[in-house]
Specification:
Order of helices and strands: EEHHEHHH
Strand order of the largest sheet: 2-1-3
Shape: globular
Number of strands: 3
Oligomer: single chain
Strand content: 15-25%
CATH topology: GIY-YIG endonuclease
CATH architecture: 3-Layer(aba) Sandwich
Structural class: alpha+beta
Radius of gyration: 17 Å
Number of domains: 1
Number of helices: 5
CATH class: Alpha Beta
Length: about 120
């Protein structure tokens, strides 16, 4: 009897970049594969030292990444930005998302951090 070939594709883990607004108004950036679980960990004080003393936290931005490597690069790029630049980036992404929902996507704005490059200015 011939053995059946089993197509074993690895389940692709979906990574996301997220930005939290802490109870003291500061911003925290991280990556995860499960945003609900991670947010709960932050609010329980078990996720990071930074957010532990700045509860509660609220997700203000999330975007998908192409894999763990891309997520780490995006996280690093985001952490290099000032608060004002992060807020401008979040606002730009929201506007691009709204225009995409109206049928006018601006792909440059929607995917500007996909290659971990952040245009300043």
């Amino acid at each position: 009897m011939a053995a059946k070939k089993i197509n074993k594709k690895k389940a692709r883990v979906k990574w996301s970049l997220y930005i939290l607004k802490c109870g003291d108004g500061t911003l925290y950036t991280g990556i995860t594969t499960d945003l609900d679980r991670r947010t709960e960990q932050h609010n329980n004080g078990t996720a990071s030292r930074y957010t532990r003393s700045r509860l509660p936290v609220k997700v203000i931005h999330q975007e998908p990444c192409r894999g763990k490597s891309n997520a780490l690069k995006k996280e690093y790029a985001m952490k290099q930005l000032s608060r004002a630049e992060k807020e401008a980036y979040i606002d730009m992404k929201r506007k691009a998302f709204r225009s995409a929902r109206r049928g006018k996507p601006d792909k440059k704005k929607l995917y500007s951090l996909n290659d971990a490059t952040v245009a300043k200015g």
